[in-house]
Amino acid sequence: MVLYAVIDEHHDEVDQHLDIEEAPTFEDVGEVKPPVVMNAYDAFLCKMPNTVLTFALGMTGVASLWRSVARRLPNTYAIWWNISNFFAVLAILIIVLVNFAYVMKIIKFFPAVKAEFDNPGTFNTFAAAFLNLVLLASIFAPWSPLFSQTFWYFGALGCFSFALYAMGRWLEKPYTLSDVSPPHLLSSVVALFLSALYGSVIVPAEVCWFLYSGAFLAYCILMTMHFLRMMQFGMYNPKIAPGLWILVAASSVASVTYVQLNGAYDGFARGCFMVSLFLCCLLLRLSRLILPLSSAGISWFPTSFPAAAFAQACLKYEAFVGTSLTRTLAFVAVGWATFWNVALLFIAAWSIKKGRFLPKN
Q1: Rounded CA gap, 358 and 342, in Å?
Q2: Where does residue 9 rank: exposed (0-12), middle (13-18), buried (19+ CB within 10 A)?
Q3: Which of 63, 105, 248, 316 could hold 88 in an S-S bridge, CB 3.0 to 4.6 Å?
Q4: How far apart are CA 55 and CA 32, in angstroms?
């Protein structure tokens, strides 16, 4: 009791010495709102990155790949055509599913989407939304020319507009090498190359050469920046390092598109293919850093389309050279692209079950 009396007597001095602030009253705080608890579906949407928009690129590439195989093997055309149709339908389902999911994210969590768009390392991936339309044009080409042309016009216009915006954004705002990331190649290189490739049977050749030239300009710039960035800052974070395989995709698509527009396989097409082959060997050499098992999940999906694009380039090269070595290379590349794209679906299911599909941040 004596202690309490002493404290009460020197109350002001004690407060001043300890710098104790008066606690707020209920009137000051106002109505206390309970914390918002999201269900599992909303929590998944909120954390889902825009990388999901690239999920169908690999399956579409495999469908186009098996169509090329079917044209090379006319005696058993129906078998390969059915395989191609299977992957084409699967790609359509994936495109519909992931785009619906991301539209729901835009509606429910627009600030999170805006944060991705404002981030210099992730906004380029939004080009995949338009690239999916271009790939749908390739899928529907043998089924419905009208749908194919409609998808291509909307997709190519979107890819071209987004590439102009992306490259203009790089010049308008100060960027450093640390801001460079693999999706930069997706928005302004791969998207324009594929628009030129699939537009060669829809629009005049000059339009496709125009798109090809813009893609090649960005290709030369960004390839240099990627290597300078890694030489200065080291390998990318394991969660985005698998995206380096887009380097292989860009070189492969450059070769395939050039052959389609030029009408013949010449030294330039061979050079682009050899660059993609060399990059493939280099990335396999660095596979321990690029594809660590600890990052298995959504971060591995950017490797799906490069596998299909490289296999397509191998088929073009084999048709030009026609040796047993190139035939073996094409056979292995087609088999690996098909296996890897199917395996990624099982890897996705496994990582979802383990709770490792989405990044923690």
Answers
A1: 19
A2: exposed
A3: 63
A4: 42
* Helix H or strand E segment including 189: none
Say how far apart CA 316 and CA 262 lie, in whole Å: 13
Identify the CA nearest to 133 among candidates 159, 113, 166, 165: 159
Q: Give the residue from 82, 85, 28, 23 showing the smallest Cα distance to 60.
A: 85
SS3 content of the chain, % helix, strand, coil (to 5): 80, 0, 20
Please count the other Cβ atoms lying within 10 Å of the Cβ belonging to residue 38: 12
What does the alpha-carbon distance between residue 209 and residue 207 come to, in Å, rounded to a whole number?
5
In which residue are the tokens 């380096």 written?
A: 244
In this structure, what token pair is assigned to residue 11?
Answer: 């109350």
- pLDDT 10s digits, 161-184: 999 988 888 888 777 777 787 777
Name residues whose C-beta falls within 8 Å of residue 278's C-beta, 6 or more positions apart in sequence. Answer: none
**Which two three-digit tokens encode residue 306?**
């490069």
